[in-house]
Write a structure and sequence with these properties.
It is a single chain. The protein is of the alpha/beta class. The chain is about 40% helix and about 20% strand. It is built from eight helices and ten strands. The protein has a six-stranded mixed β-sheet with strand order 7-6-5-8-9-10. The chain has a two-stranded antiparallel ribbon with strand order 1-4. Strand 2 and strand 3 form a beta hairpin. Helix 1 packs antiparallel against helix 2, helix 6 packs antiparallel against helix 7 and helix 7 packs antiparallel against helix 8. The longest helix is centred in the N-terminal third of the chain and has 18 residues. The radius of gyration is 18 Å and the shape is globular.
Length: about 220
């Protein structure tokens, strides 16, 4: 099985990504969503965790062979950066969402020397704001950020535009379109729901995909 479909199947199996187009979830922003995503569940599913970490290592080795340090995003990327770092024999650290207000007031945890080549490890990317903030902190510290690896990306236009503007590349194990396809193949959703899901992904603030399903 292709890696992106294997990871998609894994995430669906443990309900780390869960589609519910008939009963949308409501995000904190108020947006109604047909998908729920919690990749932290991969950490408590050893077989899936093994697929994810080996997959991330493959992405790193194929796309960033010169990497010297892995840096996880806080908090969801930390465990994945640590496990991948262990597998690859590389140092790792993580970037806090803000500098500590005590001690050495670090925002970057772990040793990082100016000029070192870094890959950022993230669990999921939607609008890409948090991971780009991490990239900027690392660049300000003198690191050469080679790029990002992540478990899952929505492929939202806002996220793609932000990554392009920041001149940083992300490589994900799987993506929204792939997971929607696998979900239909395996009976988690109806095949006709795929277009509704893609409509949501393309414009999350437009709720017309909900009424489209109700008409059927």
């Amino acid at each position: 099985m292709e890696l992106n479909k294997l990871i998609a199947s894994d995430l669906l199996k443990i309900k780390a990504v869960f589609f519910r187009p008939e009963q949308p979830f409501v995000w904190a922003s108020g947006i109604k969503s047909p998908v729920y995503c919690d990749n932290r569940l991969t950490l408590t599913a050893p077989e899936v965790r093994n697929d994810v970490e080996n997959g991330l290592v493959t992405l790193i080795r194929e796309n960033y062979p010169d990497v010297q340090v892995l840096m996880g995003t806080s908090t969801a990327g930390i465990a994945h950066a640590a496990i991948c770092g262990h597998i690859m024999g590389l140092p790792m650290g993580y970037v806090r969402s803000g500098a500590k207000d005590h001690g050495r007031q670090n925002q970057i945890e772990g040793r990082l020397e100016p000029g070192q080549k870094v890959v950022v490890v993230e669990d999921l990317i939607s609008t890409a704001g948090s991971c780009i903030e991490v990239v900027n902190v690392l660049r300000e510290a003198g690191a050469e950020v080679l790029g990002i690896v992540s478990i899952f990306t929505y492929g939202m236009q806002k996220g793609l535009d932000r990554l392009a503007a920041a001149k940083v590349v992300n490589h994900s194990l799987t993506n929204f379109d792939c997971i929607a396809e696998v979900a239909a193949e395996q009976g988690y959703i109806k095949p006709e729901d795929i277009q509704r899901l893609i409509a949501f992904r393309n414009n999350p603030s437009d709720e017309s995909w909900i009424s489209t399903g109700a008409d059927k």
